[in-house]
Amino acid sequence: MPLTAQDWLAKIRALPLQRRVRIMNVCGGHERSITMAGLRGALPKNIELIPGPGCPVCVCPEEDVYQAIQLALQEKVILAAFGDMLRVPVNVGKGEVRSLEQAKALGADVRPIASPREAVKLAQENPDRAVVFFAAGFETTSAPVAAMLLEGVPDNLSVLLSGRLTWPAVALLLESETPGFDALVAPGHVATIMGPEEWRFVVQQHGIPTAVAGFTPVSLLAAMYSTLRQLIEAKPFLDNCYPELARPGGNPAAQAQLKQAMRVTDANWRGIGVIPNSGFFLNPAFAAHDARLRFPSQDDASRKRAGEMPPGCDCARVVLGKIYPNECKLYGRACTPRNPIGPCMVSDEGACRIWWAGGVREPVEAA
Known about the structure:
Layout: H1 5-13, E1 21-27, H2 28-36, H3 39-42, E2 47-54, H4 56-59, H5 62-74, E3 78-82, H6 100-105, E4 110-113, H7 116-125, E5 131-137, H8 139-151, E6 157-164, H9 167-175, E7 183-187, H10 188-194, H11 200-206, E8 210-213, H12 217-233, E9 238-241, H13 252-261, E10 262-269, E11 273-282, H14 291-294, H15 315-319, H16 351-357
Parallel strand pairs: 1-2, 1-7, 3-4, 3-5, 5-6, 7-8, 8-9
Antiparallel strand pairs: 6-11, 10-11
Helix pairs in contact: 1-12, 2-16, 8-13
């Protein structure tokens, strides 16, 4: 009989932990499941769960959001984007448009969509207008965008691609002097595309216990138990606690489509800076559908300022697991879901928004 969440909690509580252990969960979906299931409060006090860099909306470069806004306002395109992106603010002067939502309120044709197919449909239904699909996301989003392009898209559809790979951000943390975590729960959805093996470097190069997890409390607790046992026994390895979907080798067809439609190169992460080999960009074969090439006048190089977050916003340190969301000095004061200052309070995968939805409303002073 499969173990329940209660069974896994009992097994974790029975472990002879002699010190504080910090487990980073990379995925924003994991953070949402952990918070909504109340797992932090159920685990022993010496186990800390650290939200990691798994929110694509949070790390989407400020200059990409700004370019999308300008395309909608200046080029009069139909600008399609995943819903969370509409409220992400950029740094502009008082009175200027700071989000796609504000651009829409001023008359720009901005439309929230849920899938690449909806972007294709918009272009088909509006053949006399340019349609730009602002596609921000990690591997699980970039793969469907690649498939869309390879299937063929209308001539009037172009893509403003802001795709990122997940593992390079974790590699960046591990290569720093103070990684800040003792074990890693790796993202299940990314592993379904790229394969669990993509996370083996965490064990082989850094000796840190790692387990791939799904999004139920059972899978997450199983992964946490695995990493804790690895620590106690001093035998780190890569465990797959999401075998029903994350299979060895991942999805070869999706990987082939990504390689055919996109190339991987250095990319800017908002608040973090440029991370080597961390971004998806369209291959030259799809230049006719690359919004950066089709509308070069709106590609403002002067906005490419590494580490750009709104003044006073600590989203970057939240994303990197350096502080908890409510340790940001703006959390719950100037920054709330109704009036987000930083992107972590916008997205359903942003740790600040998740913690707020989970009932954490009071800020605390960072240690």
